[in-house]
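Fig. S4 source data, part A: sequence.
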Amino acid sequence: MIAIKVDAVFDGERFLPDGAVVIVEGRQVHSVSPPTTELPAGCEVLRFPGTTLLPGLIDMHVHLCCDSGAGALDRIPEFSDDDLVTVIENALAAHLRSGVTTVRDLGDREWAVIDWRDRNRDSAFPTVLGSGPPITSPHGHCANMGGEARGVEQLRRAVRERAERGADIVKIMASGGANTPGTDPAGVQFGVEEIRAVVEESHARGLGVTAHAHSLAAIKNAVAAGADGIEHCTFVTTDGIDVAGSVVADLVASATTVCPTLGAVPGATPPPGVLEMMRKTGFSLEQRAQTVAGLHGAGVRIVSGSDGGISVGKPHGIMPEAVISLVDGGVSPPEALATATSLAAAACGLGNRKGRVRAGYDADLLVVQGDPRAGVTALRDVRAVFLRGIRA
């Protein structure tokens, strides 16, 4: 049994008054008590002065098969099976160092991540949820991952394959992407009926669906088809950015979860495709954060993911920057932290055991120096990470 004494605790929803002592027994949190609580006999005490304890972060959008280098998405097919194992494990180690204890992989190369997860379910790495290769149109965005499909029957068959292989969620590329030459972020790759077929087939097998959607048209299609989540949600049109009020209202009414994939290495230059999209649409990263904060203020369900691994500016382990960007855009620190903890856990089906500092929940815990209420950049200063009760 371990007692962790800190000055402040964010429990996944709110900050507890006057700090707390968190007692861990085995893989789970045993209790969360006031700092003056008498400790059980024989309890090992770990003191972290001037710190805050939080649930381990959940990164809702990563690419474990990408190595964080230039052109990482394009270079995935160059890796051998052994190379991919190394890339995946290096990626997970980087996430863990940053305080991330659960990741949702949305860009598998064939089935490398799913197969790795199945072989390493009790490893010293973060918990891995995976989509398998994203479903995309022929020659569409991220087609090199192996998920091309066309027409309703092929799409339904693709969903069945993912269910049989043990995917945790189905991802479909509803629009093109900035980092795949020849695809159009302002266009659509699938219509409403095609996405609806994916949603119906997935829901029949107990799987949620999240749609990569940069374009306003693709967002509309995904919401109309009943997708559970939208990745990026950039509102791109051929004329710029159009955060249409009617679409925002539909996102709220449908309770669709949006993962905007904010955050990057401070000062990093975005990849050429992203720079071109920014030039055409006239938006900046700062404006993007403000837009997402506006969606949050309107009642859209926001969760945080980093898109980690896809470029030098978005390497693995960049998740704290996604939360920091939300706060920079205008979201309060507690609400921003919830997008990477309790709200993220609920969105990926783990809300009964992760994302909170609560008795009976997994002892996935993060200790940072300072108080994120005073400065959310405290997330960058990791003092300790506990993964299922063991200090990493």
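Fig. S4 source data, part B ends here. The mean pLDDT is 96.
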